[in-house]
Amino acid sequence: MKSSKHQFVGQKVKLSDICSIVSGATPVTTVTDYWGGDIKWITPSELNDDSHVIYDTAKHLTEAGFASARLRMFPKGTVLLTTRAPIGKVAIAGEPMCCNQGFKNFVCSDAVNNEYLYRYLKNRSSELQALGRGATFKELSKKEVAAYEINLPPLKRQLEAVEKLALVDKQVVIAKTQLDKLDSLVKSRFVEMFGDLKSDTNGWPIKPFETFAIIDTHMANDLTPYLDMPHIGIDSIESGTGRLSGYRTVAEDGIISGKYPFTPEHLIYSKIRPSLNKVALPDFSGVCSADAYPILPIAGECNRVYLAEVMRSAYFLEYILPLSGRAQMPKVNKKALSGFSMPLPPIELQQQFAAFAAQVDKSRFGGMLHLLNSLSGIMHASFFSVADTD
Predict the structure, then answer these.
(1) Tens digit of pLDDT for each residue in 54-73?
(2) Helix (H) / strand (E) containing 119
(3) Domain hosting residue 82, numbered range
(4) pTM value?
(5) Which residues contact 62 (CB under 8 A, 6 or more apart)?
């Protein structure tokens, strides 16, 4: 059922003008009678960058649990927006459901198409993240969300934009499938060249971390020299592949101190569980958050591409997971990482693998270039131009 908000079309509109905004809450987790029912209840951790329509949730509430938290159901078609931990993930409810306090969700009026709003907000996730406030963790308030303005063209133009982007989505799916195949090719080549690291059938020396890499945690207390450089957070690193996206400059993020500088010779490793297989290989200089370690492989001993692939492997995770602690935010400390040992093949063999991975990267990015340019053009035409009122 649509929101009862009045029809409104203009160049810029507040979300509160065109949507009803629904928040959520969490029933007491220790009361078993509140959990395991038929009511779908979603949390921000269930959304990712590829989320679109959500039909089911990881947890379900009973009627008693629903009533205890004074929750409100929102209908099928509601646009979901995470506003804390993290900010800016977007999806559409494929079934009626409720949520925890990490969302501000939009029941659309007849003035706005839910697919259009979903895509608009998804495209503005970085902007939404920058609006977050809070000392312990950033959050968007209901007041801030209600006042957020979007371009709202007439419904006909909204539907045209959605149709165009749906065609682009199909091409993106094809491209991602190709990328997945290329990623699998690199992993297969790694196994062919180095075998099962755990069994160590090649007889290569087992060397401790400190002999082939430096955990480079000299912190920059003055970030003035880095203002135009990227600031990498662990959310910018894709699990499994290490691809980087969604990062901003130091100046854009407004940070002034307490970050680790890195160069194109470093790799960046996420030390926060459950992101312990996130390892990035930047080809630029910048700073990373304190939730990651810049690691500098020692020249002539270890190639960073080889090391990154080891640190994404089950072999490494089997070692590091038990050492990541049981705190509210489990993380790997420097001592635990320094204690890691691994087989170290001859540097020439490591470099051969790195050269193979570089050739695969050329295939990956060359094939994506035209698609990304086309996608950028369509998004600019659909979202960034001033909406007309015809």
Answers:
(1) 999 999 999 999 999 999 99
(2) helix 114-123
(3) 10-152
(4) 0.59
(5) 33, 34, 35, 36, 37, 38, 39
